[in-house]
Amino acid sequence: MRAIACGLLFVFFVNGFTHAQLPADSRAKVETLATETLRTSGVPSASVGIVSEGEVSFTQAFGLAHVSPDVKASAAMAYPIGSISKQFTSAALLLLQQEGKLSLDDKVGKYFPELTRSNDITIRNLLTMTSGYEDNAPQDYIIPSWLKPVDPLTLVRQWAEKPLDFEPGTDWQYSNTNYVVAGLIVEKVTGQPLMKFLRERIFTPLKLEGIVNTYTEREKLEVTGYVSYAMAPVREQALEGTGWCQGDGDLAMPVATLLKWDLSIMNQTLLKPESYKELETPFVLKDGRDSGYGLGINVRMVNGHRMISHSGEVGGFVSDNVMYPEDHFAVAVLTNEVAASAAAKIANGVTGAMIPAVSPAKKESGNRGDSPRRFEAVPETGVLKGFGAKLATILDELEKRKIDRKLFTFDCNAYFSADALKDFSGTLTPYGPVTNAILTGSAQRGGMTFAAYAVSFEHGPPVRVTLYLQPDGAIEQLLVTGKL
């Protein structure tokens, strides 16, 4: 290793590419942020990486890769990145388009004519989440069927032969189904397994090291995934079965490798410039609205700075990846607890420290006794009408380790195992009765209504509760995801 002084930065070479160390004060801020976030959230570990001045300047892991027996996390360990994998599938299709083997404006029916409205839906609709195909995996917990292996084509036929959720190109709705179809198109055009094509045409040319398939190579993972029921101490969480995430969330890699991928996007080193333009251009809906979503990435302006981002979540893991290309900055955070916000909190904190102009407004902490009126309420309509009162009753019953299972779907009843009921009761009982449940946001996804509530208690801090409700009102998800 050779160090060369360069102003306040020091440059050195590791694994064939340049790193520029963060100044000591910035490094200390990142270390404090990561350590404190893990302490307050209970998330076992975070692997954090930063690109500054166009070079990798920081990679460090914090916490435990495995709890009891304790195994320290290392930045060299591969973490599942979940839906950040989608942009790799998009890049594969852009490569094939460059070679004239397909067009993103090809109809899906050219490859899978049996799918619903396949002659009205393009590959571009798949990649921009504007096809109307229903999401096969909106839940933020592992439902029983996901633990069994599935053939991706069987999965697609189950979900993409349903009626559409909306007319193609008229709306935006996140759907993992789109990318399973997209991955199968890559396989049909190339005659190769998707992972083989990615390795030969993307990973190897870019020298992206340490990438494994989360599911077919799960034995290579050194990090264990976890779940926390209502902020209780974590329990081990099994990964999904093979096939569920092909093309949409099946990659795992060390944080430095993800940063190297970010640099390839910022420096445009794999694709042609026109392909990167397609990758990074948000889809415009038929009524002129900007979807804010390109080809597997979120794209928006933040106080005059262009941000490209995506998060990811699979069984036991959450990741966050943020780039500001014109600022030559990126941050990636990989964590090992499902349905946790630690990755986003660390990524946002690092971004705000490194680029103050895009720092989000600070929110008041949810201390005991805070007025619930500080949460911005939205009206409860449709299936959510009057649900706040019902949610308060459900949570009060969970404090007593009781549950009215008639209110829940099969999947959600499976989630509320004996362990989950014990943990919900252990966490919530000291908080006392619910005093208020305020709807703070809702959306449609996977044929269901997603809702987020801010719930206040007589004695404890307010918490965030996320739900999915089926059209008949049955509860498909009810998670307490953290303090507000």
From TrEMBL:
Cleavable signal peptide: 1-20
The Beta-lactamase-related domain, residue ranges: 33-339
Pfam families registered for this protein in UniProt: Beta-lactamase
Keywords for this protein: Signal
UniProt entry tagged with the keyword Transferase: no
Name of the molecule in the record: CubicO group peptidase, beta-lactamase class C family
